[in-house]
């Protein structure tokens, strides 16, 4: 019985070994997965211009502080805080009555001076006959001539005083908008004393800033300035202050550079403390969207036009500090190529180095492809302007 048991256990062991061997053969006979399918396209060839971006803020073309030239009590306000005003619109009125009294007094003084002039002229005319007859001396006659000259000067002075009083009454006591623009809030209420004149202690009544057009000021570094200067003469770029270089702008809540203007000024000196120089562009602002002091990002041409190759931005992967794309060679094998990317141009990324016109770049299926493996290729005419699928974006992030 012991011998039969041993033979039974040996047979069972052989059966188990045969089963395991059969399983291994079954696994070896399982078909390998097919090559992953990817979409490839050749780079787009396009003439592009490098774009530099800077942050700056809007400033008004004209800004005026409304102050009175004469002192007096404020009697009327003819605007609503923050409204748009036109040049010549009446804004403030200072009490006219003191200026009317001063004008009447100046006119009376002028009448008196003219009467005195008439008397001296008649006295001089009589003196001419008397001096010829030796009735009066030459000295007396000269005194009459002097009196007439003094009277004429007095009339001229009084006429100037009258003119000044008329200005105070008819113009200076009524403050009008000197420019078109938007006025701020009133700084003084009706009934308050307004201090006028030419000194620094005059009363600020309001401020007006022009709105359309509006300027945008920004600064750029010395290296950029030198780069602009080197091709400004031939291409009319930013460094040429006499040319209206087109620029684009976006606000802080926008994603696209949808506002277009032109450069109109480059400063004449580099700031020693910061090593930057100030540039300025001008933009149309008919809807008053831009406000002085508002921040924005401006994009200016940073190079002459050049021929470039472009691929979808999502087709570019990252390996530590280097960027790469996957291309498919003539044998259908994915290969890794390191590239130097440039700016975005209509959702396509400029490739400055690393690609050729004949390369077939994988633009869809990056998550399925790996360098060195064979892939199934689907041809595509040109890279899609839209972003690649989500998996490609994930490959780029990795």
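Sequence proposed for the structure above (398 residues):
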């Amino acid at each position: 019985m012991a011998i039969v048991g041993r033979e039974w256990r040996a047979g069972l062991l052989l059966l188990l070994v045969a089963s395991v061997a059969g399983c291994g053969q079954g696994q070896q006979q399982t078909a390998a997965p097919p090559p992953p399918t990817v979409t490839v396209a050749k780079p787009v060839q396009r003439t592009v211009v490098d774009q530099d971006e800077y942050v700056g803020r809007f400033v008004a073309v004209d800004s005026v502080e409304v102050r009175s030239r004469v002192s007096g009590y404020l009697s009327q306000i003819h605007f609503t805080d923050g409204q748009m005003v036109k040049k010549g619109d009446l804004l403030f009125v200072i009490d006219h009555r003191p200026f009317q009294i001063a004008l009447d007094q100046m006119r009376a003084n002028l009448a008196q001076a003219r009467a005195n002039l008439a008397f001296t002229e008649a006295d001089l005319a009589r003196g001419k006959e008397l001096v010829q007859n030796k009735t009066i001396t030459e000295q007396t006659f000269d005194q009459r001539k002097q009196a007439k000259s003094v009277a004429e000067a007095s009339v001229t002075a009084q006429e100037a005083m009258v003119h000044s009083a008329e200005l105070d009454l008819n113009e200076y006591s009524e403050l009008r908008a000197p420019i078109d623009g938007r006025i701020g809030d009133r700084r003084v209420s009706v009934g308050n004393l307004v201090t006028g004149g030419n000194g620094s202690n005059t009363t600020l009544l309001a401020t007006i800033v022009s709105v359309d057009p509006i300027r945008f000021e920004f600064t750029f570094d010395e290296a950029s300035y030198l780069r602009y200067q080197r091709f400004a003469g031939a291409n009319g770029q930013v460094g040429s202050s006499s040319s209206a270089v087109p620029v684009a702008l976006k606000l802080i809540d926008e994603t696209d550079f949808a506002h277009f203007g032109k450069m109109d000024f480059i400063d004449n000196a580099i700031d020693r403390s910061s090593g930057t120089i100030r540039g300025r562009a001008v933009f149309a602002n008919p809807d008053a969207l831009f406000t002085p002091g508002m921040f924005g990002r401006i994009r200016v041409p940073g190079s002459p036009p050049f021929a470039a190759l472009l691929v979808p931005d999502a087709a570019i992967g990252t390996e530590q500090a280097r960027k790469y794309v996957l291309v498919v060679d003539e044998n259908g094998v994915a290969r890794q190529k390191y590239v130097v990317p440039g700016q975005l141009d209509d959702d396509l990324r400029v490739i400055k180095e690393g690609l050729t016109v004949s390369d077939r770049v994988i633009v869809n299926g990056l998550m399925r492809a790996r360098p060195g493996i064979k892939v199934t290729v689907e041809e595509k005419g040109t890279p899609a302007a839209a972003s690649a699928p989500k998996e490609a974006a994930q490959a780029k992030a990795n």
